[in-house]
Structure formats: structure tokens, C-alpha cells
Amino acid sequence: xxxxxxxxxxxxxxxxxxxxxxxxxxxxxxxxxxxxxxxxxxxxxxxxxxxxxxxxxxxxxxxxxxxxxxxxxxxxxxxxxxxxxxxxxxxxxxxxxxxxxxxxxxxxxxxxxxxxxxxxxxxxxxxxxxxxxxxxxxxxxxxxxxxxxxxxxxxxxxxxxxxxxxxxxxxxxxxxxxxxxxxxxxxxxxxxxxxxxxxxxxxxxxxxxxxxxxxxxxxxxxxxxxxxxxxxxxxxxxxxxxxxxxxxxxxxxxxxxxxxxxxxxxxxxxxxxxxxxxxxxxxxxxxxxxxxxxxxxxxxxxxxxxxxxxxxxxxxxxxxxxxxxxxxxxxxxxxxxxx
Length: 339
Fold this sequence. Notes:
The protein is about 40% helix and about 20% strand. The protein has eleven helices and 14 strands. The longest helix has about 35 residues, at about 1-35. The chain is of the alpha+beta class. The chain has two domains: about 60-210 and about 300-339, no CATH class; about 215-295, no CATH class. The radius of gyration is 31 Å and the shape is elongated. It has helices at about 1-35, 40-50, 75-85, 95-115, 135-140, 145-160, 190, 220-230, 270-275, 305-315, 320-325, and strands at about 60-65, 70-75, 120-125, 165-170, 170, 175-180, 215-220, 245-250, 255-260, 265-270, 285-290, 290-295, 305, 330-335.
């Protein structure tokens, strides 16, 4: 009988209790593993959402910091995050920012292939190449509550367009861009002379009026106007009582000032803009008593993509490829490895 109970309890233990204990231990161990790896799983998930691209060439660039003369080697897309954050407001639409990322990447490759600097591919001066700002400086200029989300948005737009460049006849274009076209873009020949690029034509863009960059004015006294003009033309003389001495002579096809008469000198619209500090060459010149008012439409040289125009198109539902193909005529968007 004693052996019977021993066998009976052994049977119960083996069949029921032991599996239960083992199962409990196994579940506990599994739970602990999951708990210890929550961060790892999240990191893996984030890595899976990153867009990967194997740059066969142009993976890094040499960036000249003009203030220090230092040349820094940096990853192309890392560099572009700094460029896009410097060139376009972070509160613009995603598709507009994507267009800016592709435009900036294309402009960079064009500069690499058409070198301007002996020891670098491109510089951080917007007057020479394109703007660049450090992450620390950029973050400090945003509201604290928006810093991380803004930077993440910029990175997203660069990452989701990895490897994309704008080409014409298989080559990267000289992808000019500006802040606000005032409704119509400009031909490069009217800004810098020389020959025009076939992909940079006069195109219209609606909806730019609602941006602060659209309209501005500069009011100068007669003395201030003469002083600014004399920085280049010391012998200039203007009879302010004669309307023929202060007159816009002709316009470009995009309705920008082509030439203007200031007394005994005839200046181009581009030169007038530079000397007087106007935001574009699309201006009217109005005499108001002893003052001369320059009423200006648009902001920038007007060539290529208008940033506010891109944002307007994005708000209306256009994607970044449609935006790019609106402002650059006859182009294709290709992979950088196909160049």
C-alpha cells in the first residue's frame, strides 16, 4: 500500500505538477527577456523605417567653412539636413521640403562637377554656393518646443529623397532657387547674362501673395538715393524735377525691371536692386514729395524654384516631383548612382 501511494503521487507530480512548474518558469523567463529588450526592439523598428541608399559615389563632400577656412569632410545627406534647415522654413509642407532637399542635393552635385573652390566641393556662403547652418545654431533659432520635431521633419525629407537628383539630358542641372517669385520666375540670362539653361524658363505660380516675402518697399530721400548710387557712380546727377531723369526704361518677359534711368546713368534692374537693397527686380519707382518709394514684389533673383511657390503647390496637393517638374522644364528625377 505504501508503495502504491508513492507511485501514485509520483505519477501525479510527473503528469501535472512538473509541467505546470516548468511552464510558469518558462513564461517568467520569456517575460523578463521581453522587458529587457523593449528599447532594442524600438531601436530596431526605428532603423527599419529609415530609408537606406548605397551611394556608389558622392557619399561624402568637402565643405568649406568660409569664416574659418576649414574644409570639413561630411556625409552628403548629413550636409543636406543643415542646408535645408538653413534655406527653407521648417513649417513649410513636407512635399515642399522634400523638393528643397532634392534641389539642394542636385545643386551640390552640380557644384562638385563644376568646381568653384580648389580645395573643396562647395562652401557654406549663400552668396557663393548655398546656405549652411550648424545644428546647434539652427535649434537655437527655433522655439524650444519645436526644436526636435522641426529637425526630425528636416531629416525625414532628406532621408525620404535619398539619392534623388534632377537631371536634364542625363546630367545634374544647375538647380537655382529663391524665396518668392512674385508669381512668375525669371530667365537666368536676365540676371547674370551669358546663355540661358533650357530647363530654366519663365513659369507662373499662383498663391504666393499670402507670404511675407511677397511684398516689400524701400523709401529713400533724394540724398539717400544719390548716396547709394554714388557708391559705384560717383559722377551721377539726377534732376528730380524731371520725370525723364528718374524712369524705368524697359522690362523683362517676367515683368521685372530690365533697365532704369537715374539721371546721367542707365542701370540694369539687377544692379539697381543690389545698390539700393531691394528684395527683387520686380519693382515700381514712385516719387512721393522729396522721397522715392520702391514698391517691390517677390524676394530673390527669381530663377528656378520659388520656395513659397513650392509650399503653395504642396498645400494644393502636389508632391515633390510635380513641384520640381513645374519649376524646371523638361527635367527627369533620377538616382544619383545613374549619373
